[in-house]
């Protein structure tokens, strides 16, 4: 099953989005939070993200969902520390964090492929609220 | 082959960053989020703590340690950017290699490529790259015309300074300052400025070890 990694500058946002997604998609999907930096400060930490990716990817790959700015920089730095095989099955979703994580988690829970999960996340860009 | 050690080079950088902590933070206050000096000082403090607790086995593993420490302590965009620079520089060094000007040139190139790739930035974007690229070219030209290590670094430092001045004349295209658009003109880029400070510190280091030889 494809796993998810939630990257946010805020530890609480990452954990909150993870908890919400688990509530919606069930416990079967591996969802790892990688938010904040040491001492619960705001920021993103590539090594924390790398660790979360290793936990989320159990062989079928992982999709990373992220918030703003340097979250992308830090995630791409994290990828540099992975071996080629694992790096090849990690994709960053170009999607809104909350909505993207929910659609990705539901999709992943059905046993969908890496590509299907990342495109499910991306579809959340088009979700209207009203 | 040159005497000296990664630790003494990093010491020179760490104390220069610390001395310029408020200066870098003030520059960042004008067009960013007022933390560049604070973040960089925290990162290089952590680097020194790491290197003081255990001297790395060789240059290659030492640079990797520096990179990992910066990545996990600097925060913001500078952590991954400087971390990638040191990581890529370390990857060009084979186990047991000692620093020499030719190796320094290839480390420099790898570091600049890493920053450009990671930040998706090029010259003219008002970033670190505006100091790094001209500095690299000056280093390379000086080396080709027979300059020694301190001379190469002096040329690099001076070119970086010109690059810093250039960033005052252009609008930011990357990072938080890019939201300011044309209003960022007139302000110098904090990242380019820290590149210049680091190159100046490396020059001080190179001049010291050169004298000792």
Automatic annotation (TrEMBL), chain A:
Gene Ontology biological process terms, A to Z: glycerol catabolic process; phosphoenolpyruvate-dependent sugar phosphotransferase system
An example molecular function term from Gene Ontology annotations: phosphoenolpyruvate-glycerone phosphotransferase activity
Cited PROSITE patterns: PTS_EIIA_TYPE_4
Reaction(s) the record says it catalyses: dihydroxyacetone + phosphoenolpyruvate = dihydroxyacetone phosphate + pyruvate
Keywords associated with the record: Hydrolase, Kinase, Transferase
Highest taxon, organism lineage: Bacteria
Residue ranges annotated for the PTS EIIA type-4 domain, each copy included: 1-130
InterPro entries, per database record: DhaM (IPR039643), DhaM_N (IPR012844), PTS_EIIA_man-typ (IPR004701), PTS_EIIA_man-typ_sf (IPR036662)
Family annotation (Gene3D superfamilies): Phosphotransferase system, mannose-type IIA component
NCBIfam families for the chain: dha_pts (TIGR02364)
Subunit structure: Homodimer. The dihydroxyacetone kinase complex is composed of a homodimer of DhaM, a homodimer of DhaK and the subunit DhaL.
Function of the protein: Component of the dihydroxyacetone kinase complex, which is responsible for the phosphoenolpyruvate (PEP)-dependent phosphorylation of dihydroxyacetone. DhaM serves as the phosphoryl donor. Is phosphorylated by phosphoenolpyruvate in an EI- and HPr-dependent reaction, and a phosphorelay system on histidine residues finally leads to phosphoryl transfer to DhaL and dihydroxyacetone.
Protein name: phosphoenolpyruvate--glycerone phosphotransferase
Gene from which the chain derives: dhaM
TrEMBL record, chain B:
Gene that encodes the chain: dhaL_1
Subunit structure: Homodimer. The dihydroxyacetone kinase complex is composed of a homodimer of DhaM, a homodimer of DhaK and the subunit DhaL.
GO biological processes: glycerol catabolic process
CC per GO annotation: cytosol
Pfam families in alphabetical order: Dak2
Keyword annotations of the record: Glycerol metabolism, Kinase, Transferase
Record's function text: ADP-binding subunit of the dihydroxyacetone kinase, which is responsible for the phosphoenolpyruvate (PEP)-dependent phosphorylation of dihydroxyacetone. DhaL-ADP is converted to DhaL-ATP via a phosphoryl group transfer from DhaM and transmits it to dihydroxyacetone binds to DhaK.
Gene3D superfamilies: 1.25.40.340
Protein name: phosphoenolpyruvate--glycerone phosphotransferase
Biological or metabolic pathway of the protein: Polyol metabolism; glycerol degradation
Alphabetical list of PROSITE patterns matching this protein: DHAL
Residues of the DhaL domain: 4-204
First-tier enzyme category under EC: transferase
Catalysed reactions listed for this entry: dihydroxyacetone + phosphoenolpyruvate = dihydroxyacetone phosphate + pyruvate
Catalytic activity, EC: 2.7.1.121
């Amino acid at each position: 099953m494809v796993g998810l990694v939630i990257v946010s500058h805020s530890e609480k946002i990452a954990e909150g989005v993870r908890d919400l997604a688990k509530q919606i998609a069930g416990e079967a999907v591996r969802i790892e939070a990688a938010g904040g930096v040491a001492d619960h400060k705001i920021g993103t930490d590539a090594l924390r993200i790398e660790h979360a990716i290793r936990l989320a990817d159990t062989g079928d790959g992982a999709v990373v969902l992220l918030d703003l700015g340097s979250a992308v920089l830090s995630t791409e730095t994290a990828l540099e520390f992975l071996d080629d095989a694992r790096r090849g099955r990690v994709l960053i979703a170009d999607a809104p964090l909350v909505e993207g994580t929910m659609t990705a988690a539901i999709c992943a829970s059905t046993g969908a492929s890496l590509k299907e999960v990342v495109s499910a996340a991306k579809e959340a860009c088009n979700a209207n609220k009203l | 082959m040159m005497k000296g050690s990664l630790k003494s080079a990093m010491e020179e950088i760490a104390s220069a960053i610390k001395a310029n902590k408020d200066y870098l933070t003030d520059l960042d206050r004008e067009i960013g989020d007022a933390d560049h000096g604070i973040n960089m000082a925290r990162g290089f403090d952590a680097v020194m703590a790491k290197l003081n607790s255990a001297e790395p086995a060789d240059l290659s593993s030492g640079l990797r340690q520096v990179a990992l420490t910066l990545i996990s302590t600097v925060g913001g965009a500078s952590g991954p950017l400087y971390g990638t620079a040191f990581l890529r520089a370390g990857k060009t060094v084979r186990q047991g290699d000692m620093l020499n000007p030719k190796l320094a040139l290839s480390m420099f190139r790898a570091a600049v490529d890493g920053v450009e790739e990671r930040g998706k930035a090029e010259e003219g974007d008002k970033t670190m790259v505006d100091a790094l690229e001209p500095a690299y070219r000056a280093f390379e030209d000086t080396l080709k015309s027979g300059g020694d290590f301190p001379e190469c670094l002096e040329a690099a430092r001076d070119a970086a300074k010109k690059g810093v001045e250039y960033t005052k004349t252009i609008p930011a295209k990357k990072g938080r300052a890019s939201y300011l658009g044309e209003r960022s003109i007139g302000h110098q880029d904090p990242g380019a400025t820290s590149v210049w400070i680091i190159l100046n510190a490396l020059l001080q280091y190179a001049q010291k070890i050169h004298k000792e030889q």
